[in-house]
Amino acid sequence: MSVSGPFRAGDRVQLTDSKGRHYTLTLADGGEYHTHRGALAHDDLIGRPEGSVVTSSGGSTYLALRPLLPDYVLSMPRGAQVIYPKDAAQIVMWGDIFPGARVLEAGAGSGALTCSLLRAVGPAGHVHSYEIRDDHAEHAERNVVKFFGEKPANWSLTVADLASHEGEVDRVVLDMLAPWDQLPNVAAHLVPGGVLTVYVATVTQLSRVTESLREQQCWTEPESWETLMRPWHVVGLAVRPDHRMVAHTAFLLTARRLADGTVSPRVSRRPSKGKG
């Protein structure tokens, strides 16, 4: 599977019609893709440059491009709910996932975030993914292998609790129902200065994991936020927000591991109104 240059057999191609609808296929010599507006011969695409326009037997035109990672994530088969691209981008940036990093991920879910982590660490890094559910692990492995064309050599997927992990890691990403239960295990494996990123869906979870980090006293003051993504409609002088947006999907939280025996300086906070 090639990632650039002319289309080849085995490549995934995303076709976009005149209404902006997407259709994804895998090219094969002699193959055909049938739509309600006629068939498209795969051979008409193989050998052509990315960004070409092809015409079906019914006369409809389609723009042909390789799908981007966000396209793949939003269309992948799901076992668990995927981490949306807007949140995955925040995790890679604020979690400081760098080339060569050793990353511990728990749980793997459908493998959406795993693809972003593997790209970020590169061949010199390694992603250790843990998933307690067999069915979710199967979905994750299929989706990751399908995206990369093979199982990446720098990825290990273990069906177990992350407590079974051995060895130091540079970064940790938690996406689970009760991340506070795993904080002692995370602290045991994360290097001093390493970044912990936590993905949670509810305010209750956010509050509990934040207070648990403070109680453990081996972390910097946790920072939390959510990301809202609002597309804009731009046609001539008609410039306005789109009618739909991807609003709340989750809360993200980051904290950094302190050196052993160190206690973070106490953060002064304003007293709540009404308290004298």
TrEMBL record:
Keywords: Methyltransferase, S-adenosyl-L-methionine, Transferase, tRNA processing. Its EC number is 2.1.1.220. S-adenosyl-L-methionine binds at S110, G111, A112, L113, E131, H136, D175. One of its GO terms (biological process) is tRNA methylation. It is an enzyme of class 2 (transferase). Homotetramer composed of a dimer of dimers. Catalyzes the S-adenosyl-L-methionine-dependent formation of N(1)-methyladenine at position 58 (m1A58) in tRNA. Belongs to the class I-like SAM-binding methyltransferase superfamily. TRM61 family. This is tRNA (adenine(58)-N(1))-methyltransferase TrmI. It comes from Amycolatopsis tolypomycina. The lineage of its organism: Bacteria, Bacillati, Actinomycetota, Actinomycetes, Pseudonocardiales.
